[in-house]
């Protein structure tokens, strides 16, 4: 009987830890990952305007007046960043070539996949060059 209580207590502690970990991850995802999902859905201008509205409590008239300004500024920022992003892509390409030359064929294949995933993440976050 004592052994049974001990096992049940261990299972209970395990389940409590499992549930607490799941709840913690849900809170983390809501706090940290949710803005990224909204940014992808709304785009940079829409995301910024949403945050601005939340912080300032904009009226509909203010939103209508501010939206074209935000869109214009975001486009200007994109235009300024684009040459830098192209230069960055060239630097990554040269780096990939130099690193690949040091790898075995198996490592090179894995490295190519690794860099493709990294490029996809950069493009999703910063946009395409």
Average of the residue pLDDT scores: 83
Q: How big is the Rg?
A: 24 Å
Distance between the termini: 68 Å
The count of strands amounts to 0
Helical coverage, percent range: over 70%
Number of domains: 2
Give the structural class: mainly alpha
Q: What series of H and E elements makes up the topology? A: HHH
Regions with little confidence, pLDDT below 50 for 5+ residues: none
Approximately how much beta-strand content do the residues carry?
under 5%
**Largest sheet, described in full?**
none
Shape: flat
Number of helices: 3
List keywords for this structure.
single chain; mainly alpha
Task: Describe, in plain words, how this protein is organized in 3D.
Helices cover 91% and strands 0% of the residues. The protein is an all-alpha fold and 129 residues long. It has two domains: 44 residues; 72 residues, no CATH class. The mean pLDDT is 83.
List the helices and strands and how they pair.
Blueprint: H1 2-56, H2 60-100, H3 105-126
In brief:
The chain contains three helices and no strands. With 129 residues, it is mainly α.
């Amino acid at each position: 009987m004592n052994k049974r209580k001990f096992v049940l207590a261990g299972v209970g502690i395990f389940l409590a830890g499992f549930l607490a970990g799941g709840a913690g991850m849900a809170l983390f995802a809501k706090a940290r990952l949710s803005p990224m999902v909204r940014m992808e859905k709304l785009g940079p201008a829409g995301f910024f305007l949403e945050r601005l509205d939340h912080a300032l409590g904009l009226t509909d008239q203010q939103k209508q007046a501010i939206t074209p300004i935000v869109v214009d500024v975001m486009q200007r920022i994109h235009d300024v960043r684009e040459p830098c992003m192209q230069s960055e892509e060239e630097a990554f390409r040269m780096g990939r070539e130099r690193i690949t030359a040091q790898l075995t064929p198996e490592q090179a294949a894995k490295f190519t996949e690794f860099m493709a995933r990294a490029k996809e993440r950069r493009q999703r976050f910063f946009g395409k060059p």
